């Protein structure tokens, strides 16, 4: 564990807490992509198949459980909560996310470290996480205006991946046998997808104005 990974984990956790706060406080999921949330739930379930077989640390196990439970809870609220589900922007959330799932699965079957059940699905989860934000970004661009909590959620989600890139650089420089090239390349792709959002987030922060994305 190093400071960059810990910062990444905490900003990831903060992003989820911000989203849960938005849903709980406003009883609304307006501006949130259900398809992105479904993709993240699938990411965590397939990545942490080793939860009950490989113990690394209490911290590691707790974080795995937290991410699985919170992502599942968000999907449940958006689909089943009698009040929250009314605010879901279904007309704007039309990204064909199943193509992302299929594409990442095919890629994982071709490019992986070891051809085992857990390793293939681990690679699948890494590839899928890299592009899972796409439905959310498309929805925000279609809606134009972004409310404060939704903007903070996406910002912290992007910051989490940026910290993880620093974590990989640190590990590459300090560990003799560092081999996580699948994570590194996917992380760079994922961070690049946030570049446009970060630019407009900075502009809104600099001008103290409401965050708006070009349609």
UniProtKB/TrEMBL annotation:
<keyword id="KW-0812">Transmembrane</keyword>
<keyword id="KW-0931">ER-Golgi transport</keyword>
<dbReference type="GO" id="GO:0015031">
    <property type="term" value="P:protein transport"/>
</dbReference>
<keyword id="KW-0472">Membrane</keyword>
<feature type="transmembrane region" description="Helical">
    <location>
        <begin position="98"/>
        <end position="115"/>
    </location>
</feature>
<keyword id="KW-0675">Receptor</keyword>
<dbReference type="GO" id="GO:0006621">
    <property type="term" value="P:protein retention in ER lumen"/>
</dbReference>
<dbReference type="Pfam" id="PF00810">
    <property type="entry name" value="ER_lumen_recept"/>
</dbReference>
<comment type="similarity">
    <text>Belongs to the ERD2 family.</text>
</comment>
<dbReference type="GO" id="GO:0046923">
    <property type="term" value="F:ER retention sequence binding"/>
</dbReference>
<feature type="transmembrane region" description="Helical">
    <location>
        <begin position="121"/>
        <end position="141"/>
    </location>
</feature>
<protein>
    <recommendedName>
        <fullName>ER lumen protein-retaining receptor</fullName>
    </recommendedName>
</protein>
<feature type="transmembrane region" description="Helical">
    <location>
        <begin position="153"/>
        <end position="173"/>
    </location>
</feature>
<dbReference type="InterPro" id="IPR000133">
    <property type="entry name" value="ER_ret_rcpt"/>
</dbReference>
<dbReference type="GO" id="GO:0005789">
    <property type="term" value="C:endoplasmic reticulum membrane"/>
</dbReference>
<feature type="transmembrane region" description="Helical">
    <location>
        <begin position="56"/>
        <end position="77"/>
    </location>
</feature>
<feature type="transmembrane region" description="Helical">
    <location>
        <begin position="179"/>
        <end position="202"/>
    </location>
</feature>
<keyword id="KW-0813">Transport</keyword>
<keyword id="KW-1133">Transmembrane helix</keyword>
<keyword id="KW-0256">Endoplasmic reticulum</keyword>
<keyword id="KW-0653">Protein transport</keyword>
<dbReference type="GO" id="GO:0016192">
    <property type="term" value="P:vesicle-mediated transport"/>
</dbReference>
């Amino acid at each position: 564990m190093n400071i960059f990974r810990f910062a990444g984990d905490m900003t990831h956790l903060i992003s989820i807490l911000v989203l849960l706060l938005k849903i709980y406080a406003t009883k609304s999921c307006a501006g949130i992509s259900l398809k992105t949330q479904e993709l993240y739930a699938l990411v965590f379930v397939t990545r942490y198949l080793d939860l009950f077989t490989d113990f690394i640390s209490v911290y590691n196990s707790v974080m795995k459980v937290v991410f699985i439970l919170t992502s599942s809870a968000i999907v449940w609220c958006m689909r089943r909560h009698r009040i929250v589900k009314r605010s879901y922007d279904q007309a704007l959330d039309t990204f064909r996310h199943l193509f992302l799932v299929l594409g990442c699965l095919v890629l994982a079957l071709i490019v992986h470290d070891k051809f085992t059940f857990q390793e293939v699905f681990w690679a699948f989860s890494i590839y899928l996480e890299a592009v899972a934000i796409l439905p959310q970004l498309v929805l925000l661009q279609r809606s134009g205006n972004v409310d404060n909590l939704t903007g903070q959620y996406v910002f912290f989600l992007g910051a989490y991946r940026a910290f993880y890139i620093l974590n990989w650089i640190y590990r590459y420089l300090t560990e003799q046998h560092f081999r996580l090239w699948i994570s590194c390349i996917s992380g760079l792709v994922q961070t690049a997808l946030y570049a446009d959002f970060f630019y407009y987030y900075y502009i809104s922060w600099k001008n103290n104005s409401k965050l708006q994305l070009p349609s």
